[in-house]
Design goal:
single chain; 175 residues; mainly alpha; 7 helices; elongated
Length: 175
Amino acid sequence: MPPSLDALVTRFRIVAEWVTTAMLFAVFLIYLTGIAARYLFAAPIAWSDELAMIVFLWCMFLTDAFVNRESDHVGFDILWERLPPRGRRVAGLLQTGLFGLLFAAAFPTIVDYVMFLWREQTSALQWRLDIVYTCFLVFFAMVIVRLAAKFVALSGRGWREVVADETPPASDAVG
């Protein structure tokens, strides 16, 4: 990745981290508001649980789309660790190519279904469900973009860096 693009991605990831952190904090505040309304003021509010769930849904999908790195995900890598670099490249190309094509093929159907949800609304806030679930479209699109970027990286000259062993960071924890 060119240095300028890498810097842009890093800045965007930092902004996304702050936004999703604020969203998680908002979920906490919404729950506190609902609890206070119910138990301190004896006036339960119907929208607090629904809003917290929607904000949490957006937070979860946006975090995975823009903040989490591939190394943050749990993976089944027993075979990957035993392969030589060229084998890893082939396996990586097959994996990213196959999943990229599957996700790209499914994307129009998923878009169609989410757009179909305009007819339905949330119970308390009466928000259209297509707007509520747009975060899933963003997430799904980013999965496709990430798979395509990894496929391109594995196809290019710097593929050895992509398949190199990642050494885990040193732990500061004292056992």
